[in-house]
Amino acid sequence: MNDARAGSLAAETIRSSSLYNEDLAPVSPERRTWSTYNYAALWISMSVNIPTYLLASGMIAGGMSWKQALFTVFLGNVLVLIPMLLNAHAGTRYGIPFPVFARASFGVLGANVPAILRALVACGWFGIQTWIGGEAINAMLIALAPGWRHFPFGPAICFGFFWLLNVLVILRGIETIRFLQGVSAPFLLLIGLALLLWAKGKAGGFGPMLAAPSKFHSFADFFRFFVPSLTGVVGFWATVSLNIPDFTRYARSQRDQMVGQALGLPATMTFYSFIGIAVTSATLIIFGEALWDPVAVLSRLGHPWAVVLAMIALLMATLNVNVAANVVSPANDFSNLSPRRISFRTGGLITCVMGIVMQPWKLISSYGNYIFGWLVGYSGFLGPIAGVLICDYFVIRQKNLSTQDLYQRGGLYEYSSGINWQAVASLAAGAGVAFVGLFVPTLRVLYNYAWFVGFAVSFFAYFILTTKVERVAETAH
Description:
Blueprint: H1 2-15, H2 36-47, H3 50-62, H4 66-94, H5 98-106, H6 112-144, H7 154-172, H8 174-203, H9 206-209, H10 219-243, H11 245-248, H12 254-286, H13 294-298, H14 304-326, H15 328-337, H16 344-357, H17 360-363, H18 367-396, H19 421-439, H20 444-448, H21 450-476
Helix pairs in contact: 2-8, 2-12, 2-14, 3-4, 3-10, 3-12, 3-18, 4-10, 4-12, 4-18, 5-6, 5-18, 6-7, 6-14, 6-15, 6-16, 6-18, 7-16, 8-12, 8-14, 10-18, 15-16, 18-19, 18-21, 19-21
């Protein structure tokens, strides 16, 4: 009875806090219903999308052979699965979302720093996915009514329509996302296979499709392209590797989320990347040029209804991954700024607006901008955040958190007026070292390895600063 009363008082204390709202609250045991299948389906539907295709096809366009590109994709996804599973643990154990988890290391107010950095990246991704969806709608309308091609505002109107469709899904909430993932995941894999078989038939088999050799004449030339490409693959999911607690807080058990993610992420990313690699290689034979954009490929299918069906499949895939990967996290992150004023839905609407402001059409204007500018660039911020979170949770705290204090001012995670400056300094150090390579040509390798360099520097910086503070405190007592 005493335990029940204590639990009730703790829950009441959390609910009365200015750091609390229903969307950021710990998930109760009866709501933790996501199974292994839900997490595998989540990753299948998030991986089967156009940016995955563009990631792999961009490597082919940059000069890799199909084997080199496929190996790069597989290795990058195995590597990013490690911080993914590590950060996922706290979500499942305590039922808390990413911005609340970040309060343990950055402070109850300082957590807004990593949360907003992560949110801004997600806004960029939301814009990219929405622009791609708009392109698919535009291509579909051109197939049905060729005159639409000459309408000057056609792409903008299609972008706006798909943007509104995303808004409608956001307003319906998290359970709609779960439903979309479970229903569409198997269907999207079949669509990917159909696209691959179409390219195989048109190109005369896998032999001709995959016959193009690497354009790199030495290992040194290949390695210069391989390193930032690998960083780009890690950066591709570095966003979700931080906010994965937003999803794993609904897990029935640690085993469910770990097995589901391990089965769903590397295998599906590698499979769908192979489709992008093979089809891009086939377009050189079919159309006489390497087309890295699948919308451009599918718009040339010939029969209008074939184009329409293909575009509907792409729209479903894009809508799934956009809402799941690019709205859930920033909605929670923006909500964390002012929990009493900003709900999940309001945070989602802020994300939608910011997605337009970030001009996504420029971010994917070429494979160079996409991989080496966008993916590698933002990984220089996200790697350091992961370094701090993982060091704090696993090394410093040994996986022990006080849920009540995560929602309180003046508690265990208050630090200095709500901010842990050791964590902020470690984040700044990791990002600073990574971005030195962007401005100092002789240190370019640091930028090419941005996520890895940032993670390592921030991890060790946080460990050193935290243990030093603890030693000083012990000496003072």
